[in-house]
């Protein structure tokens, strides 16, 4: 992998992390504030509290696993030319 390709991959990973953060914030708003209109409780806890906290956490774990498997690549940051 050339140095240019490495920087392209780093830029791609950073962009996916920013997009993931935006998606997570939107999910948190919908799961917390959107569900708050429903009058549903689970063990005397409002559903919005469960979906806004635990649901958001589970969604972020799934999203990170997806990013690790599909986007991120393991490579050395050292230049191959310097090794020689």
- What's the SSE pattern? HEEHH
On the 0 to 100 scale, the average pLDDT is 89
Give the distance, in angstroms, between the N- and C-terminal Cα atoms.
15 Å
Strand composition percent: under 5%
- What is the molecular shape? elongated
Q: Over all CA atoms, what is the radius of gyration?
A: 19 Å
> How many extended strands?
2
The neighbouring-strand order within the major sheet is: 1-2
Profile the largest sheet: 2 strands, antiparallel
Enumerate how many helices there are, as a single number: 3
Q: What structural category arises from helix and sheet content?
A: mainly alpha
Folded structure, characterized:
- 71% of the residues lie in helices and 5% in strands.
- The protein is built from 3 helices and 2 strands, in the order αββαα.
- A two-stranded antiparallel sheet has the order 1-2.
